[in-house]
Amino acid sequence: MAERVHGDELDVIGIGNALVDVLSQATDDALVKLGLTKGAMHLIDEAQAASLYDAMGQGIEISGGSAANTIVGVASLGGRAQYIGKVRDDQLGQVFRHDLRSTGVRYDVPLAPGGPPTGRCLIMVTPDAQRTLNTFLGASVHLGPEDVDPTLIARGRILYLEGYLFDPPRAQQAFREAARQAHAAGRKVALTLSDPFCVDRHRAAFLDLVEHHVDIVLANEAEIRSLYQVTDFDAALQRVRGHCEIAALTRSEHGSVIVAGPEVHVIPAHPVATLVDTTGAGDLYAAGVLFGLSRGRDLATCGKLGSIAAAEVISHVGARPMVSLATLAADLLT
Q1: Is there a domain that residue 177 lies in?
Q2: The domain containing residue 217 runs over which residues?
Q3: Are the C-beta atoms of 71 and 107 separated by less than 8 Å?
């Protein structure tokens, strides 16, 4: 039987860069002309964001951000979830807050009255469904330790930290303080490595986190190989299993592997009728795994929940589920 949350307890609390996603179709040639590395996340400034936005084709705007997408997935699975991330008191900030709350996620961080505008991620999706991200962090860089409430952190069974958050220095402080608070309250801390280039920027810090401060690591194959600077997935798997309690590693169409000490679970990818857009695949996989762990499910079931959630989000444009994940995963949740 699954565990239940009681009183004001939360399943998962996520901390990340609060962004509005702008998605548009693009060709490989267009990426080359713009000097973008396909499939990667590029940090850009406000001027670059404006220029790239002008160069993009017709698109759609959806509230996003990696950890926010994951937290929405947890709520869609029936979980009690809260998000911490900074936006400005501008139009995009109001949209972000409204969209997030409408999914059932709790979001109480005050809108910033000044400073840079709400961050946005300009996402160019190529015909093979790969996404290239161009991120202007905006107001999210002003997330700091003062935005982290220890009473709130103590309520969450799992604290989920977004690797991208390591780019803004003050957010790093919030990141580390929240992790300290969670462990002081006897809670688990999970980390997503976010992107191979993010790992490259912060490898030493990430290695320290994984080895000494994090209980659960989520990463894709490229990210975990980058962390340990190895070319072989199995070699990276063996390294990480000795450094944290649980590691959930995705391998695209080859599914995922979850390891915990001597346990190894190979989880097949859930079938998808049509692959449309891989944006958010890792975020929603994380949602399934974290929700399962927060409710005391076995590792194999957690992996299956992740696969179902990821399959749903890659079947349409956008990084958030369009149907109830709890309905899709009903057989696993009963």
Answers
A1: yes
A2: 10-17+66-115+141-333
A3: no
